[in-house]
Amino acid sequence: MRSKKIFAFLLAAAMLFAVFTVFASADEEVAPDPGIDSGNAVVAYCLDDDQFLYLDRADDTVAPVVAAKLVAMMVISDLLKERGLDPATAEVTVTATAISNSGDISDVRVPMMGFKAGNVYSAKDLISATLVANANDACAALACYGGELLGGNIITFIDKMNEKAGSLGLEHTHFANPTGLDAPTQVSTPREVAKIAAA
User: Fold this and answer.
1) What angle do CA 139, 95, 153 make, to 5 degrees?
2) Distance CA 192, CA 196 (A)
3) What is the residue-level pLDDT of the chain in tens, covering all 199 positions?
4) Is 103 left (phi over 0), alpha (psi -120 to 50) or beta?
5) Are 196 and 71 contacting, i.e. CB atoms less than 8 angstroms apart?
6) What is the pTM of this model?
């Protein structure tokens, strides 16, 4: 019986010590430099608190690459919703313009599904191919489709992407294409790319 009381006392003391340690460490300041040494620009952003936890070269000019696809998917999702179109049933025909805006098909660094002009897919499948496989041809097909929904073309869609960037409060981001292919006027910053990813 005595050993049970001693065990209960030690357990209670250990739990109290653990609680005290958690609360005591919560008041300590976080080190301003966590020791990240990647050679690249780095940002750490907390979605719950809507704040940056760490910034290193956060305002350098960078190519937005995947962030361009994220904004393109935000825009196409907005357009489908505004027009009452179900992504699962909205049919998108891959056009020659979409293929020509997908990048060099012979370059293995350019992610593509291998779609051909005339292929028809649901908007949902193309959104999935863009977000999961990072597929340029799926993204470009949706951008062409979105441009048509806007009464224009892929350029109209890119203009809508830049409007979306403005509505997200991005001041140093500009898109020249929906796929993230390198272009002199396609720019962002690591800080703004983090805001895109958090949107």
Assistant:
1) 75
2) 6
3) 554 444 344 334 334 333 333 333 344 344 466 677 777 888 888 888 888 888 888 999 999 989 999 999 999 999 999 999 999 999 999 999 999 999 987 788 889 999 999 999 999 999 999 999 999 999 999 999 999 999 999 999 999 999 999 999 999 999 999 999 999 999 999 999 999 999 9
4) left
5) yes
6) 0.81
